[in-house]
Specification:
The structure holds two protein chains of two kinds.
Chain A lengths: L3 E3 L9 H9 L6 H6 L10 E5 L2 E5 L8 H5 L5 E3 L6 E3 L9 H5 L6 E4 L5 E4 L12 H5 L5 E3 L1
Antiparallel strand pairs in A: 1-8, 2-3, 4-5, 6-7
Chain B lengths: L5 H4 L3 E5 L9 H5 L5 E4 L4 E4 L9 H5 L5 E5 L12 H13 L4 E2 L14 E3 L20 E3 L8 E4 L2 E4 L7 E3 L3 E3 L9 H14 L3 E2 L16 E5 L8 H6 L2 E5 L11 E2 L6 H7 L7 E2 L10 H14 L6 E6 L4 H10 L4 E5 L8 E2 H6 L4 H14 L7 E5 L5 H10 L3 E4 L1 H6 L22 H4 L4 H26 L14 E3 L4 H7 L2 E2 L3
Parallel strand pairs in B: 11-21, 12-13, 13-14, 14-17, 17-18, 18-20, 20-21, 22-23
Antiparallel strand pairs in B: 1-4, 2-3, 5-19, 6-22, 7-10, 8-9, 15-16
Classes of the chains: A alpha+beta, B alpha/beta.
């Protein structure tokens, strides 16, 4: 399956990928409104690690055999047999954080929904958005590639 | 005024932040290598330290919500025609430091730009113009010494060239990427220039800092430079490129040598330049083995000997008062190419006083040199490359009409890959990742993207040059070379027109 790969040689640590992620997962799809009007704010599903000069952004690897899926006690996490995308059904998620503990990449984070329900959140590869995930398109230096 | 000197109170740029649009994403803070922006978590607000801003606009370019504007500080001294802001600030800074004021890039003072006083002819009625989209147009240019005459041999009815030609450089466009050393700019930019030169079928110049091992594969598209510091010069290096250039002078700082501060000499640069890590790379002002044209001839032939007479040797000088006589000497010393670098040519670091007051415009030097070599009947023995303030394809065309064979572009090259000419190259903290060897900042240049942008730029210029040639009714750039009758001057004095060899518009 196609995944997003970071290229640390060209990642310059601007973290625009995070802004893009928050924006496309917001209600308004507008960065100003997403950050200033929508609360609780949608969390970024891509993270940035930095120890200068090295840095890169990373997100869910959509593993072949996802540990998070194995660990999920409610059956909220599924892997699409066709696309390979690992996703969370927020309505089923009970917020036990087993997936967060199980993920070897630290690719899942807690999220507060508008109805104050706590759920896990992770990269969905921007399903339905078009050709490229938002982070890849927003990267000004082609430091994220989708292949 | 609290805890800061006057020079910082009278700062140049105001960072204007639209608080309605700022989302505190801190991209500006991460991108600014001068530490202008900071985040105040208590206020949940981005703050700006205006005196640190150099006006490079990196933050503005990267801001995802268009919340930033970098503007000139409106605050002003009492206007004074003589005591300009520049002079007043220079005095304040020097009174504080006692040092030489440094700068980067080319002369930014309002001297007359002769390109802007030259207009190009076009065909109407009596001679047909050409449509470059329908008919072939030739931009190919050969640089090198051309023979006085050609002799042919007739063998069984087949003609073949008898004259032995000296080595020539083939360019698909009359444009080359100018000499900017590895050290002054980083390897990513060098690689981008090499990749673009290869794709375009032109050449780039290494500058005086040697050639990184990983770029040897781009040799056929490389001109290797040998300057007074001889950094990174060895037999393998001299034979790695397509041509060798002796750098005598640089337009931005005629008469003084390069200075790469020790902080910029990182391990890979130290290896390439063959100097210890962290040591200042100081190029002497003169070549200490060249005190005359005869000495120059010795170096030219030493380099030709070292490269088995297979590579043209170029000599680069800054445009100065008696360039014409010097160029004549260079041609007679055996150079294949003369490079004239005008006073608007850029630099990674130079004293402001030298950059702004030493040297002459490339346009005048070019016209004078071309005329002198023609008068002496030796114009064919060298190619002339002009550089220093070539801003667009019109400048390229006017330069060729004035007598140049090709041009070098340096500042334009850097602008194509991000540079905004903020003139702070000497700090080594270039926020656009160009004039810096900080590995964290250098990553901002992705050679793939940068090379593509350079290729696009030259392609664009190429199309424009073809359009103008078409209007001129010319189908090869060769036919325009030195054709000053196709230029007319506006707003120049009689003497200036005489030097440029052009007629006034209307005649």
């Amino acid at each position: 399956m196609k995944r997003v790969y970071p290229r640390e040689d060209f990642c310059m640590g601007c973290r625009l990928c995070e802004v893009a992620c928050v924006t496309v997962h917001s209600e308004s799809k507008d960065p100003v409104k997403a950050y200033k009007k929508e609360f609780p704010r949608e969390p970024s599903r891509i993270w940035h690690e930095e120890e200068k000069p090295d840095c890169f952004s990373f997100m869910c690897r959509h593993c072949e055999e996802p540990d998070c899926l194995e660990a999920c006690i409610s059956g909220a996490i599924t892997k699409d047999p066709e696309t390979g995308i690992v996703s969370i059904d927020e309505n089923i998620c009970v917020g036990c954080w087993s997936c967060i503990m199980a993920c070897p990449y630290g690719a899942l984070k807690k999220k507060v929904r508008k109805d104050n329900k706590l759920v896990s959140s992770k990269c969905d590869l921007c399903v339905g958005r078009g050709i490229n995930p938002a982070c890849v398109e927003a990267c000004p230096n082609k430091a994220l590639v989708f292949k | 005024m609290l805890f800061r000197p006057v020079s910082q109170s009278f700062y140049e740029f105001d960072v204007r932040r639209n608080e309605d649009r700022c989302i505190q994403c801190r991209v500006c803070e991460r991108q600014c290598s001068y530490l202008v922006h900071s985040y105040d978590p208590k206020e949940n607000k981005m703050m700006a330290d205006n005196p640190k801003c150099v006006g490079c606009r990196r933050c503005e370019a990267m801001c995802p919500t268009d919340a930033l504007k970098i503007t000139l500080n409106e605050s002003t001294f009492r206007p004074n025609y003589s005591w300009t802001n520049f002079h007043r600030m220079a005095i304040i800074k020097q009174a504080e430091t006692g040092g030489i004021l440094l700068t980067g890039m080319g002369n930014d003072k309002p001297y007359k730009i002769f390109w802007d006083h030259l207009l190009i002819d076009a065909c109407q009625v009596t001679n047909p113009s050409i449509d470059p989209l329908r008919e072939p147009m030739e931009l190919r240019t050969y640089l090198g010494s051309k023979p006085d005459k050609l002799e042919f041999e007739n063998k069984d009815g087949k003609l073949s060239l008898k004259t032995q030609l000296t080595p020539q450089l083939r360019l698909e466009y009359p444009v080359m990427f100018g000499a900017m050393s590895y050290g002054a700019i980083n390897l990513n930019v060098h690689r981008a220039m090499a990749m673009a030169a290869k794709e375009l079928g032109i050449l780039y110049n290494t500058g005086e800092g040697g050639l990184h091992k990983s770029l040897y594969e781009y040799g056929p598209w490389t001109i290797v430079q040998c300057a007074s510091g001889r950094f990174g010069v060895h037999a393998e290096y001299l034979n790695a490129g397509a041509a060798i250039e002796i750098k005598i002078g640089q337009g931005a700082k005629p008469g003084i040598g390069g200075h790469l501060p020790g902080e910029k000499v990182t391990p890979p640069i130290s290896e390439t330049r063959m100097i210890p890590v962290g040591s200042d790379a100081l190029s002497p002002a003169p070549h200490h083995d060249i005190y005359s044209i005869e000495d120059l001839r010795q170096l030219i032939y030493a380099l030709k000997e070292a490269s088995d007479y297979k590579k043209p040797v170029s000599v680069k000088i800054a445009a100065v008062h008696n360039s014409a006589a010097i160029a004549s000497g260079i041609a007679r010393a055996g150079a294949d190419i003369i490079v004239l670098d005008g006073f608007r040519g850029g630099t990674g670091a130079a004293p402001t006083i030298i950059r702004d007051h030493v040297g002459i415009p490339a346009e005048l030097a070019l016209a004078a040199v071309d005329q002198r070599l023609r008068d002496e009947g030796i114009r064919n023995s060298v190619s002339i490359v002009v550089s220093g303030g070539i801003r667009g394809s019109a400048d390229v065309l006017k330069a060729i009409a004035l007598g140049a064979d090709a041009v070098y572009i340096g500042t334009a090259t850097l602008q194509a890959v991000g540079c905004t000419v903020c003139q702070r190259c000497y700090t080594g903290k270039c926020p656009w990742g160009i004039a810096t060897n900080d590995p964290y900042l250098a990553k901002r240049i992705n050679p793939e993207i940068a090379a593509e942008r350079l290729v696009n730029l030259v392609h664009g210029w190429g199309h424009e040059i073809k359009e103008i040639l078409g209007a001129l009714g010319i189908n090869a750039i060769e036919s325009l070379r030195g054709n000053r009758l196709r230029l007319r001057a506006v707003g120049l004095t009689e003497k200036e027109m005489e030097i440029l060899g052009v007629l006034p518009a209307g005649v």
